[in-house]
Specification:
The protein is mainly alpha-helical. It folds into two domains: 109 residues, Endonuclease Iii, domain 2, CATH 1.10.1670; 108 residues, Endonuclease III, domain 1, CATH 1.10.340.30. It is 46% helix and 3% strand. The protein contains twelve helices and two strands; from the N terminus they run E-E-H-H-H-H-H-H-H-H-H-H-H-H. It has a two-stranded antiparallel ribbon with strand order 1-2. The chain is globular. The two termini are 20 Å apart.
């Protein structure tokens, strides 16, 4: 286990009754113009004067969640691949993990199947699809009803089948084959344009493919990450998911995006307070450890 450095405390905000809230206070107007991440643009940044999160805050949350959860096993194969590329990890979390050999098209369709369902159900649906149809050409040629029955365990089978077959049909017409490996040679903006052309593919799916299959520095925002970002005051209270995605990708250092995203996502699934569910609505997974993001211990941020 890697020894983590002690993180600095983030100031707590006062509640109306004078008590301290466990969450960090939003930046003051005088400080919002400071510490703007290099490379950010006022033309595309929705909150150019909002100074959170700082690199130090991002690193503190990453370190605390890594110490609390360890690195999530479901993402280790992608982290291993990144360590083989340009990022070197000192932690032992990736030992024994095989690098990801998943194709870009496999990853895209797997991500589609993961929408609005549990990870277990989506993985079951993907495995069923791959075992029933040896190639994506077979999926494209198959009757839609047959494909629906194959992935029904993942939910929304008609919608997902229509999306998958639509992507395969469009890709075949555009490129002459069912392969997305050419995306590996494109820039992030070019990849976004290419994937966004497919009907049913939204920003979160594109960002997931960028971060996992294409190993690019991007920060997808799902409901867990969106809620925790607002809890930590990393975005203004009025921010929506789209603006949160743009803002966090401008503010979070590239070298922290992958780990931080995986860890916040994992934490949001098990921590009642951070996910905004409240202590009276426990989740299926019991989480009885002290949450470092709530500032309840002397070592918390």
């Amino acid at each position: 286990m890697t020894k983590l450095t002690k993180t600095r405390k983030i100031p707590k905000r006062k509640k109306p009754d004078g008590r301290c809230s466990p969450f960090p206070c939003p930046p003051s107007k005088s400080s919002r113009k400071a510490n703007v991440t290099a490379g950010s643009s006022n033309d595309s940044e929705p909150f150019p004067d909002y100074s959170q999160p700082t690199p130090e805050e991002c690193r503190a949350v990453r370190d605390d969640l890594l110490a609390l959860h360890g690195f999530p096993k479901e993402f280790i194969k992608y982290r291993k691949q990144r360590s083989l590329d340009h990022i070197k990890y000192e932690e032992d979390d990736i030992s024994g993990a095989e690098p990801c050999t998943e194709s870009v098209l496999d990853g895209l369709i797997n991500t589609i199947l993961s929408q609005n369902t549990t990870e277990a159900n989506s993985q079951k649906a993907f495995a069923s699809l791959k075992s029933s149809f040896p190639t994506w050409e077979c999926v494209l040629a198959a009757d839609a009803k047959l494909v629906e029955d194959t992935i029904r365990c993942g939910g929304l089978a008609p919608t997902k089948t229509s999306c998958i077959k639509g992507i395969l049909s469009s890709l075949l017409q555009k490129k002459g084959n069912l392969c997305l490996e050419y995306l590996r040679e494109l820039s992030i903006e070019e990849i976004k344009r290419e994937l966004s052309c497919f009907r049913g593919i939204g920003p979160k799916t594109v960002a997931c493919v960028l971060m996992f299959q294409l190993q690019r520095d991007d920060f997808p925002v799902d409901t867990h990450i969106f809620q925790i970002a607002k809890t930590l005051h990393w975005v203004p209270a009025a921010a929506d998911v789209k603006k949160t995605y743009i803002h966090l990708n401008r503010r979070i250092p590239d070298e922290l995006k992958f780990d931080l995203n995986c860890l916040i996502y994992t934490h949001g699934k098990v921590c009642r307070e951070c996910s905004g569910k409240g202590s009276n609505k426990p989740k299926k997974e019991q989480f009885d450890k002290l949450c470092p993001l709530l500032g309840q211990s002397s070592d918390a941020i």
